[in-house]
Amino acid sequence: MRSLHAELTKLRTLPSIWWLLAATVVLMVALGAAAVDSVTSQACLSPADCHEDTVKLSLTGVWLGQAACLVLGVLSMGAEYSTGMIRTTLTAVPIRRRLLVSKATALSLLTGAAGVVAVLASLWTARLILPLHGSTLRPATGTVLCLILVALLGLSLATLLRDTAAAIICGLGLLYIVPLLADILHSPTWQHRLERWAPMPAALSIQATRNLDHLPIAPWPGLGVLAAYALGLLVAGSVLFGRRDA
Amino acid sequence: MSDATIEVRDLRKRFGRTVAVDGLSFTVQPGTVTGFVGPNGAGKSTTMRAILGLDAPDQGTALIGGRPYRDLRTPLLEVGALLDAAALHPSRRGRDHLRWLAHSHGLPTHRVDEVLEQVGMDKAARRRAGGYSLGMRQRLGIAAALLGDPPVLLLDEPVNGLDPEGIQWIRTLLRRLAAEGRAVLVSSHLMSELEDTADHLVVIGRGRLIADRAVADLLAAASGDRVRLRTAARTEALELLAREGGTVTVTDRETLTVTGLPVERIVELLSEARVPVTEVGAHRATLEEAYMELTREAVEFGSSPDGEEVTP
């Protein structure tokens, strides 16, 4: 618990962390509002015969918010290596697995808090523009979890690579390039595979409230794919972190 | 604090093909300042990292109070370390840097303010660390080491880049910490930095132990039976004393160092030959000289001694 307190203090005392948390909220609300607003004028002339998945649309902002969370996660470990502070950190908390668990928990708490604010603000803003159909509980919770998992993905990559820039590039590649590939590839089989097994489109099935039977992957298993990436890399990072000289 | 020691036993560590530490053993006793000296690249930092559990040794052990660092429940209360004073996040305030360290051990915030005052950083610590001078970083690093009031201290090159006032401050602090009964290990690649500060010296070269002795012994051994004399007639004195069986070294424009002849004999010879002498006395070696003698074979980047030796 003490090492968690230390890691929380470490994050809280950096201005860049607060900027990134604010960016997560602003980007999510702004993109969500834009997405919902574009629908009102084009596809949904009246709320009654609107067949769009409005809840999913209002949470579209996750596509931008996740970038801020990724950077946040990367910085939480990357800055330790770039400044050399990792040695001070390890003299204070010599049990490396405990340190990594504390870091992951502190990061999850902060991104989780920002995620809750961002999701609630996105839904509230969307509701001002359009009525939302269906239950928002699963999409809302899932989106918050999604942001937390992306931050953990950043932490894992930074732990593995020990370099901020390299970890950000790998993370962005995983989140944005893989979904782009799905559009470039003409083979429907491969498109389907990527939509199911790439972390980002798969995880966002958690936001769907309509046509659940036609999703490439069901909501919770979809989020599970992202969780598998983040936690799998975290375990790999933990093993290497425990063995390497600091 | 009697069992608070650092014990290094047969420590070995290699990085790729380079052997950084090669079978090193030594002990740091409580109540003493132990200087850890060696040329750059001798393995000092690697040894310190091994003691702190940061690098895993290939062989041997490094124990603190009988236990490996990674087994310490509250390490900051048992060992205070300064490894790299520059290792600070530039946008975090100095005080916040100590706060997270304090939180990792459940120490109260007033302890942070206490150590900041002790190192004279109470005002500067409210600013972001990016704007600190090297001296301020060193002081903050020392405050971090003192945070848990530990019985063992490990400081890697703490005077590096400090101004004379800062160096004096660290010396006084190290003396006081040892006088309080703590075991203090302080590394340096400059022997002169440890003069008047260290009680004991552990000298290493190429990862091996060269000497593990009390400073007083080391100085006595290096001083030998040398006599130092000052004369305007350097050449006459040199030739005369060399002829009489002394080994004479020119140490300065007007000074000579003589070995192999007792002081009385030298004075007698010089006055018989009417060689003017302004000063004669037994020579007291500096720590630097003692060190040069010890490391002559072990230094990786050696330089020739500046005295020319004349033997009969």
Automatic annotation (TrEMBL), chain A:
Which organism encodes this protein? Streptomyces colonosanans
Q: What top-level branch of life does the organism fall under?
A: Bacteria
Q: Which UniProt keywords apply?
A: Membrane, Transmembrane, Transmembrane helix
Name of this protein: ABC transporter permease
Q: Where, by residue number, does the polypeptide cross the bilayer?
A: 59-79, 100-124, 136-158, 165-185, 220-241
Q: Which Pfam families match?
A: ABC2_membrane_4
The region annotated as signal peptide is: none
From TrEMBL, chain B:
PROSITE patterns in the record: ABC_TRANSPORTER_1 (PS00211), ABC_TRANSPORTER_2 (PS50893)
Kindly indicate whether the keyword Nucleotide-binding belongs to this entry.
Answer: yes
Q: Where is the ABC transporter domain?
A: 6-231
Origin, by domain of life? Bacteria
Give GO terms: molecular function aspect only. Answer: ATP binding; ATP hydrolysis activity
Question: Which SUPFAM superfamilies does the protein's record reference?
Answer: P-loop containing nucleoside triphosphate hydrolases (SSF52540)
Show the InterPro entries listed in the entry.
AAA+_ATPase, ABC_transporter-like_ATP-bd, ABC_transporter-like_CS, P-loop_NTPase
Sorted alphabetically, which Pfam families does this protein's record hold? ABC_tran (PF00005)
Q: Which keywords does the record carry?
A: ATP-binding, Nucleotide-binding, Transport
Please report which protein family the annotation says this sequence is part of: Belongs to the ABC transporter superfamily.
- What is the protein's given name? Multidrug ABC transporter ATP-binding protein
